[in-house]
Amino acid sequence: MLMLTTLVVSQTVLSIEVRDDEGLLVQLDKSAERIISLAPSLTELLYAAGAGGKLVGVVEYSDYPQAAKALPIIGRYDMLDMEKILQLQPDLVVAWQTGNPRATVNRLRELGLTVYIAEPKRLESIPNHIRRLATLAGTEAIAEKVIEGFDTKLATLSENYRTKTAVRTFYQVWDRPLISAGGNELINDIIKLCGGVNIFADIELVAPKVSVESVLIRNPQAIIASGMDIERPEWLDEWLKWEQLSAVSTSSLFFVPPELLQRHTPRALIGAKSMCEQLDQTRAKLVSN
After folding, report:
1. What pLDDT score does 2 carry?
2. Residue 118 has pLDDT above 70, yes or no
3. Which of 13, 30, 158, 239 is the most buried (most CB within 10 A)?
4. Looking at 39-43, 70-74, 225-229, which range is the least confident one?
5. 197-219 per-position pLDDT tens digit
6. What predicted TM-score, i.e. pTM, was given to this entire model?
């Protein structure tokens, strides 16, 4: 008796799986084609990952690259327009863990949207974030080239500056209240990369409020300010009245645009290069004195 065996071939749909920064498994049946970003830095990371062309909505201040300025605005990072988000029909929403309201993120999930939560914290983590976003968007080939370039630039800066003579550095985010950077922030990583020592590295809080007295006691050899935009803040010169500060005696009051130092994106290395060169100027002045 001739027996015919029927082979049943089942096709398994291969999904894309990536764990976000809260350890949750984010799954997509196919690469994301309509993405919404809920933070300016995440918008930049998505472009770096090659997924900029798939963005359909961003929050205010998503101003880099230039193409991001033409995208629909779906609110501020802390005040999102839920109705507009739904109208844009995203198949992926990239949220900022500590910046976007938790209730809003939960609501997006309740409405059936796929949410990936990101929280870049270290300079060295930027490539991994780009890689994961590229996996979700199906743009791995583009992302790997960006990552290779980032790693090369980071290695060069590290080789050139990390082991140089330490420079006590005060990074000033704002003047009133006086805000600095603690030891668990991107700024601290960049200061260390440049061979500097963050005078408030012992503070674990993000963007800690500090006092003028504490700055005077720790006596930074360089003060680097950010401010709000690409212009040097006038309040940086308020330190000139404290002539006992080492940074003042050597005219080591510097400025780097905040978007080049305070966003966890590849452009952080542009800001890092500027900071490293500034701290080198301070080193030269300290030697000559």
Report:
1. 39
2. yes
3. 239
4. 225-229
5. 999 999 999 899 999 999 999 99
6. 0.89
Q: Which residues pair with 115 in a beta bridge?
A: 93
Q: How far apart are CA 120 and CA 288, in angstroms?
A: 39
For residue 98, the model assigns a pLDDT of: 87
Burial 207-230 (b: 16+ CB within 10 A, else e): ebebeeeebeebebbbbbbbbeee
Please state which of the four CATH numbers 3.75.10.10, 3.90.230.10, 3.40.50.1980, 3.40.1360.10 is assigned to the domain occupying 16-145.
3.40.50.1980
Contact indicator for 262, 187 with CB cutoff of 8 Å = yes
Residues listed for the chain: 289
Phi/psi region, residue 286 (left: phi>0; alpha: psi -120 to 50; beta: rest), is alpha
* Structural element, H or E, at residue 246: helix 246-249
Alpha-carbon distance 189 to 163, whole Å? 14
**Alpha-carbon dihedral angle through residues 196, 150, 131, 263, given to the nearest 10 degrees:** 50
Task: Please state, as a whole number, how many other Cβ atoms lie within 10 Å of the Cβ of residue 289.
Answer: 8
What SS3 state is found at 222?
A: strand
What local confidence, expressed as pLDDT, does residue 174 receive?
93
pLDDT category of residue 14 using cuts at 50, 70 and 90: low
Share of the chain above pLDDT 70, in %: 95
CB-side exposure of 69: number of CA atoms within 13 Å? 4
Cα end-to-end distance, the chain, whole Å: 102
Residues 6+ apart with CB under 8 A from 83: none
- The ranges of the chain annotated as CATH 3.40.50.1980 are 16-145, 162-288
Report how far Cα 146 is from the mean position of its chain's Cα atoms. 15
